[in-house]
Amino acid sequence: MAYTPSQPRFGRFIPGFAAGARKPAAVAEPAGAKRVQFSPSLIPYLFLAPQLAVIFIFFYWPSVQAVQSSFYIEDPFGFGATFVGFANYTDAIFSPEYLSIAKFTVVFTGLVTFFSLALGLLLAVKADAVIRGSSAYKTLLISVYAIAPPVAGLIGMMFFDLHIGPFVKLAAWFGWDMQVGLNYYDTAFALIVVAVWKQIPYNFIFFLSGLQGVPVSVREAATIDCRSGFRRFWTVTLPLLAPTAFFLLIINITYALFDTFGVIDVMVKDKPANNPITLVYKVYMDGFRGNDIGSSSAQSVILMIVVFVLTIIQFRFIEKRIHYT
Amino acid sequence: MFKKFTMAAVAVSFSASSSFAATNITWWHGMGGRNGEVINEVAQKFNASQTSCAITPVSKGSYEEALAAGIAAFRSGEQPNILQVFDAGAATIINAKGAVIPAEDLINKSGYKFDRNAFIPGVRYLYAAADGKFVGMPFNSSAPIMYTNPEALKKAGVEAPKTWEEFEAIAPKLKEAGYIPLVQTQLTWEFTENFFSRNNIQFATNNNGYDSIVDTKLKVTDPNLIMMFEKLKAWKDEGYFAYYGAGWNDNQKPFEEGKVALWIGSSGSFGGLKKTATMPFSATFLPYWGSINGAGKNTFIGGAALFAMAGKPEAENKCVADFFQFLTSPEIQKFYHQATGYVAITEAAYELAKKEGYYEKEPVAEVGIKQLKLEGGEWSKGYRLGFYPQIRSIMEREYNRIFAGETTVKDAFDTIEKEGNELLARFAKTAG
């Protein structure tokens, strides 16, 4: 059941830290500086040990177990296991249901990432323009982030409830007979709205601090050179925001892929039926609700590979285009 | 002062030693809300009734979560003495040879006499082995019954239907009277599993899966079942049947609000419904098809059973046997039946409640039991299918697609049979 977020979570609350941590490989030493050599000692390793132990116990060990059990079809209680080679993988990959869930996961991740980034940026730009009372705005917008995903799911479920949901009534005014939990697309819509709503504040606060980090002198120079505010934003502000945006892109993809679990669980838990779910949720469904450990392990290994590939793409190709100041 | 202290110390040591003398057993279950409270009350009653055993019930969330927790605990050797497992998970635990001690063996070994015939007919087989031996101890049991809205029936000038043919005849009148004629709460349990039992049709090969898990195949492309769902689809299009999704409450709610004339629900919903319904209600049996030869048999139970987990010391097993014995005593069964709305599972408890005049006061509470006591058929005993929770999910997905118009009934059942059989074949491998 192990999966890994594509990024370690350090520096989540320090904007620009994780993304800006890269330093040029060789730092020129000032002439005449004396190099101090420390003799190798055990102490640094001791300091590292707790962290390494945590990583090993909670990540590597379960991963190895998952890979191992993905090659078996096992009795839930652990009495017998049949070695089946790659059958669990082929069964998953070639099942039409798995494919349709994978397709939904891609669409879901794309839409949630896009909308939560775009809306977060929009709100941040607007809030940045307000000088007076900006801290009040910040507090108001960030407070939503304090809501736990299941609670967000619960609120979403109430808003979209078939019988009492205000959003459903609202949609009915426009002639949209919204049936969350019954109609595939309506449910997908509701899931995306709740997932985006939950993530906007996080993006907002990062973008806002990123915007406030743009030097005033640069802004002033840009104002003199260009009258169009929109073009100024496109050509000057946005490139300067790129490190923040890149960091947020990774965090948001991770969020949409994995952290929306709570939202999905609350919103479609007791109505499995024809509702959209993501791949992570299917891992949970097959493993914990269906007690099919082999298939569930194989699926989680597939997810691990996907995340691995995503990480490589992100750092190999996308990050190269980012200019760090 | 000193005297008081010693007295207190002595008292404390006594009470401590007496609780140490008792054998402690644990009971993991998947019930919440009022039903969870009743479980605590049952445990308290047991603890008060004797001194040698003490039972501690622990809620593990939902049925599925309780099963998952029980499995995880068993694998690490930390299993509880008793685990509650729901109907769809029965094959998982019963096929894991060595995970549980059959309830019947446990009880016999502890010197009690176990009588299968003490249980009402619809309860006897669902948690039993192919030879009829009780593996699980039926606990909270329910039957799918048809709740009715007497106001609606009166307004339309009709009687509650006994067969689906009668329903077809009265549905237009109910609709005309301003009601949704029919809703249900769980298509898999009420209109599939129990469709097979009520109409006495075979559900799966290998004696509905009881004889063997190898090569067991679903028979859901049975023309009668296809006919049922084609009717449901047609009824939905006509406005005679409404479907609000696979969620239990979504479908129950319109009935509680008095918008619906007939609702197929669980007999175990009775207790809750009494609190939430905005109008008087009554109930009758789950309808069957008069056109199907031999239809009208009893249904089997839903709900859950208690399993005695293996690998525990003898003394604790004895306590589990004591507890099972206590649980099936007429008084406790009657208490549980009346406190929750689940059916009384033994004849004796049923007779006791009847003698007290309970059913004259609450006729609805008797409907489920009466339905379980109807004449049994060859295929009304139950089913034993592996990975069944996932098979249910496939059914629910396809049923949703039928009502959304995304697939035809024929294609949907072809898909269910194909994907379901793949899962059954996978399950057969788990025992390898």
TrEMBL record, chain B:
Belongs to the bacterial solute-binding protein 1 family. Keywords: Periplasm, Signal, Transport. Residues 1-21 form the signal peptide. It is found in: Periplasm. Part of the ABC transporter complex UgpBAEC involved in sn-glycerol-3-phosphate (G3P) import. Binds G3P. GO terms for cellular component: periplasmic space. It holds the Pfam family SBP_bac_8. InterPro entries: Bact_solute-bd_prot1, SBP. This is sn-glycerol-3-phosphate-binding periplasmic protein UgpB. The complex is composed of two ATP-binding proteins (UgpC), two transmembrane proteins (UgpA and UgpE) and a solute-binding protein (UgpB).
